Amino acid sequence: MTRKIPETTFSPATEAERYLQNAKQILREKAGKKDGLYADVKYVKMAAGTAYSAALLILDAYLKQKEGDKFTKPKSIEDYSNRIRKYDKKLLSLLADVYDELHLAGYYHGTRSVNTIQTGLNNVSIMLTYIR
């Protein structure tokens, strides 16, 4: 007997907010903080990746709003940047910051800096206002 898992569909904004809250929960419960540094890089990387995924969900929803039926999912950060540049320079700046703070410093390099990660999370929150 197989169990069916009920499908729940969330709006892009709700889904991105859920990702962002999950990232914050990982940091709060698992990463440990002392003297402005996180103690466990494994959880910082996990949270940064989750928060960056929220940013990409936001950007996809924003581009769908702007491009309508012509929307195709971007394949690279350069593709996101080029397409966002056409519509909103502030969002483009937020994308550059989030890419540096969460994807490169947080996920890829595993920074322990609380300030860097918190700035990235705040920037994703600002990005969220673009699709609400």
Outline the structure in words:
By secondary structure, the chain is mainly alpha-helical. The protein has one domain (about 10-130): Four Helix Bundle (Hemerythrin (Met), subunit A). Helix content is about 70%, strand content about 5%. The chain is built from five helices and two strands, in the order αββαααα. A hairpin with a 2-residue loop joins strand 1 (about 35) and strand 2 (about 35-40). The longest helix has 27 residues, at about 40-65. The radius of gyration is 16 Å and the shape is globular. The N and C termini lie far apart (about 40 Å).
Task: Give the helix/strand layout.
Elements: H1 12-31, E1 33-34, E2 37-38, H2 41-67, H3 77-85, H4 89-108, H5 114-128
Antiparallel strand pairs: 1-2
InterPro entries: DUF5618 (IPR040988)
Protein name: DUF5618 domain-containing protein
Domain DUF5618: 13-131
According to CATH, the homologous superfamily is Nucleotidyltransferases  domain 2
Number of strands: 2
Number of domains: 1
Structural class: mainly alpha
Beta-strand percentage range: under 5%
CATH architecture annotation: Up-down Bundle
Largest sheet: 2 strands, antiparallel
Please bin the fraction of helical residues: 55-70%
**Outline type:** globular
Q: Tell me the series of helices and strands, N- to C-terminal.
A: HEEHHHH
Terminal-residue CA separation: 41 Å
